[in-house]
Amino acid sequence: MSDVDEPPAEQAARGHGVEGELAKDRRIGTEDLTHWPTRFGSALATFAKKVAEKLGPYAALLISLAVGLAIAFTLSVIAVEVYDAVTDEDGVAGLDRPLLDLSLQFRSPVADAVITGITDVAGTIGMPIIAVSAMLILGIRRRSWTPVILITVAAAGSLLMTVAGKDLIGRERPPLADAVPPFEYSPSFPSGHTLNAVVVIGIIVYLILLRQHSRRTRIWLIVGGTVFAIVVGLSRVYLGHHWFTDVLAGWLLGAAWLALVITAHRIYLTARAHRPDGGELGRKLSKQGRK
After folding, report:
1. I need a surface site. Which of 67, 157, 172, 247 has the fewest CB within 10 A?
2. Is the predicted pLDDT of residue 11 greater than 60, yes or no?
3. Active-site residue set
């Protein structure tokens, strides 16, 4: 997707290709994403450099994402164990029935229709449309495969965690008598809509943040993405399609997986910035990052 005929300096200025990523995507505000102040972070940076030297920066990204995906799957299994530990009425699950009963008091035909529309945005039709649109727009505008890879893997990880949790738990949804049609019949734990809202919208917000210089704009983007994820999760409880603990698991698992995907992207940027053949711009940025 990179324009090979475009000079490196022009790529950097326009935010296209590799040079554009090094020039435009390396910082959020004043925070240098290739700077790793902790010992663990330094170890990750060293790993990125070695992999990039041998296999290339995209290999460092894909390996990091693969490791993150394994961690995400493990988190799903752990979430199952935690769920098993709190299914008695004295645990977190004790909130499930009362919160569903509370939502029943606020239902009306208008509210049901509006909230169904909101929840559908994060569903099996709405979210793929958003994800594919974002991949095309960001990938083409930036002349880079990186947004495509990040959004695709982020969505795949969300799907894996959803399927793993549902298959391992097999939890029943709230009674259909308490749900708003159209009804859903797949296992309830975790909430896939909530996971999608956190992960897919989260990674899109992150990619947009990389090119925003206004602090106010960055804050509004983060607030908007967070509010969307919260509203989608609560909509699942309101509509009677999930218990609250299903949504809670979706928020927590989604946030953990999103953090792993962002970390993988930081590793990729580090590999690009410090690669010996990364170009003059890469060497200059590497020197700046060490100051």
Report:
1. 172
2. yes
3. 193, 242
Section 256-272 average pLDDT:
88
pLDDT-based confidence at 5, cuts 50/70/90?
low
State the pLDDT at residue 64: 82
DSSP structure string for 28-89: ETTEETT---SHHHHHHHHHHHHHHHHH-HHHHHHHHHHHHHHHHHHHHHHHHHHHHHT-ST
Give me 244's structure tokens. 């609250």
Burial class (CB in 10 A: 0-12, 13-18, 19+), 39: exposed
Pairing of strands 27-28, 31-32: antiparallel
Contacts of 206 (CB under 8 A, 6+ apart): 258, 262, 265
Q: What is the mean pLDDT of residues 263-280?
A: 71
What letter does residue 16 receive in the DSSP assignment?
A: -
What gap in Å lies between CA 64 and CA 74, rounded to an integer? 15
pTM of the shown model: 0.86
Phi, psi of 188 (to 5 degrees): -90, -30
**Residues sharing a CB contact under 8 Å with residue 249, sequence separation 6 or more, in sequence order:** 79, 83, 165, 189, 190, 191
Quote the tokens at residue 288.
């700046």
DSSP letter, residue 90: T
Interatomic CA distance for residues 83 and 188, integer angstroms: 12
- Coil/strand/helix, residue 211: coil
For residue 248, the Cα-to-chain-centroid distance in whole angstroms is: 16
Burial of 211 (0-12, 13-18, 19+ CB in 10 A): middle
Q: What is the pLDDT of residue 169?
A: 79
